[in-house]
Design goal:
By secondary structure, the chain is of the alpha/beta class. About 35% of the residues lie in helices and about 20% in strands. The protein has 20 helices and 20 strands. The chain has a five-stranded parallel β-sheet, sandwiched between helices.
């Protein structure tokens, strides 16, 4: 991207400890507007998704592996700014707590590059909160000391261990998993009781979080036995005893479950986020993608004829989005629907209509085509009524046929089309083989069919009994059963919240 000679600016942004929701609003705002992102290994992929227009530079910073040198990173920041770029240096945790953000700030200042520091949730506070360990507590700890075990191992005399051992507060050691044996031995040699409570937290704040508790004398062996690796953080002090009362994260209903979401990437967000909030490890595996129709001719004709329709029927959120995008692109707005009653198949579709200042006149009690047809017929005599049915290119034929059978003049338009996503089968097959997947969710017949196709004729029969299949409703369940799948749970309410409830019932 060619920029003016005017100098750009660098933002040193804390990405938080790993949970996608722990990015600050300021950080999100800058990512959405920036030209370049320079990011570390521990930055969540969700954060990078905000930087849609930005060039991305991965600089590593993964423990035990080769990364870009700090000097090289500093040079990159200066170069991007001098090109006029607005650059976000996205760093795990907080930039100024063992993040070398201070070194970058000093470098930028020396080169007269404008910069801003955006704090982040540091690993210590994030890990403690998600492990249920308050770093301070009346009567147990009135001070906290953050220590980097990484630097301590390299610099002789960098840390006064006797002061740490005698502090009486909470000690938090960053990057200490590989040096845990030496760490606890040094603390005991300097006077800290072998019976001091300790917790080691791996992948803090994420669905993969693993906590091992013990005493100073035993924690190294327990962590080794549990297979604790990097990234991990160690908390030492009496506050660790409070975890039995304050732990909340490990009690979430889906904690320890791995769930596959097969919705399109654009729609997976709400479902994946809710499952993640309930403790699940989510594998986003979109089996379908939503595209515009190859030709808008039929849709454009229907838009021009809108005043002539008695009813406009939407069978999905996608139909609302795509039709309204086209309406607006043609220089029209919601006023074209003033003489037409609107039917939405379910609450999510009705809510999407409200985003365009449109309210559904009718919604069936059950969110399927059969109920919608019966509800419309029960509301008024459909003979001679003109109905526009907005659907996908692969939508079920039932609704149009049934409404026509009741005397309506039905016109159907495909406002969008669905296509399968290629190349997802191999990674999923590996996860199935390693028994990592607890449940697979299906939100439509298309997701079922495309999932089966993606897995392939050889692999799909082998995994039918390797997991639990959960569907959003009876039509999707019927499709799944036709392919030989045994349904574990079906949503009672045929919505995303209903699907989440079904998953939690398991």
């Amino acid at each position: 991207m060619k920029k003016s000679k005017k100098c750009g600016k660098v933002y040193l942004v804390g990405a938080g400890p790993g949970h996608a929701g722990l990015l600050t609003l300021r950080g999100k705002e800058l990512l959405e507007a920036c030209d370049a992102v320079i990011y570390d290994h521990l930055v969540p992929a969700e954060h990078l998704s905000y930087a849609k227009k930005a060039q991305k530079f991965y600089v590593g910073k993964k423990g035990g592996e080769k990364s870009s040198s700090q000097t090289a990173i500093n040079r990159l920041l200066v170069r991007l700014a001098r090109q006029g770029q607005q650059a976000v240096r996205l760093k795990g945790g907080d930039p100024f707590i063992f993040g070398r953000g201070g070194e970058e700030a000093v470098c930028l200042n020396r080169h007269k590059i404008p910069y801003e520091v955006v704090p982040g949730v540091t690993a210590a506070t994030g890990a403690a909160a998600f492990a249920g360990i308050p770093l301070t507590h009346r009567g147990l700890a009135s001070q906290v000391i953050f220590v980097t075990a990484h630097e301590a191992a390299k610099e002789a005399g960098a840390i006064d261990w006797k002061i740490l051992a005698k502090s009486g507060g909470t000690l938090v050691f960053y990057m200490g998993a590989s040096r845990l044996s030496k760490l606890v031995k040094t603390l005991m040699q300097n006077g800290l009781s072998p019976n001091t409570p300790v917790a080691v937290i791996e992948w803090a704040t994420t669905a993969s979080q693993h906590v091992v508790e013990g005493m100073l004398a035993t924690i190294a062996g327990k962590a080794r036995q549990a297979g604790i690796g990097t990234p991990a953080l160690t908390i030492v002090g009496q506050v660790v005893k409070l975890r039995k009362s304050a732990d909340w994260f490990s009690r979430l209903p889906l904690r320890g479950k791995t769930i596959v979401v097969t919705r399109s990437r654009a729609q997976a967000g709400n479902l994946s986020k809710e499952l993640g909030n309930l403790g699940a490890s989510v594998i986003d595996c979109p089996t379908i993608k939503i595209l515009s129709p190859k030709s808008w001719k039929a849709v454009d004709t229907a838009i021009l004829k809108m005043p002539s329709f008695d009813w406009l029927v939407f069978t999905s959120v996608n139909g609302v989005e795509k039709l309204m995008e086209r309406v607006l692109s043609r220089g029209k707005d919601a006023r074209i629907f003033s003489g037409t009653k609107i039917c939405a198949i379910g609450p999510a579709t009705a809510d999407k209509l409200k985003e365009y200042s449109l309210w559904a006149d009718m919604m069936p009690p059950e969110y399927v085509s059969e109920s919608l047809a019966a509800c419309l017929a029960g509301k008024e005599d459909l003979r001679g009524k003109k109905i526009l049915l907005v659907r996908s290119n692969l939508g079920r034929e039932y609704l149009g046929v049934e409404l026509s059978r009741k005397g309506a003049c039905v016109e159907e338009v495909a406002a969008y089309r669905t296509e399968p996503v290629r190349g997802i089968g191999r990674e999923l097959a590996r996860n199935f083989k390693e028994k990592r997947i607890d449940q697979v969710t299906f939100t439509s017949s298309s997701t079922v069919k495309n999932f089966a196709a993606a897995m392939g004729k050889k692999t799909f029969p082998k995994i039918k009994n390797k997991t639990k299949w959960v569907t959003i409703g009876p039509v999707t369940s019927q499709t799944a059963r036709s392919l030989g799948l045994k349904i574990y749970r079906q949503a009672r309410e045929y919505t995303i919240p209903g699907l989440v409830e079904a998953i939690c019932r398991s």
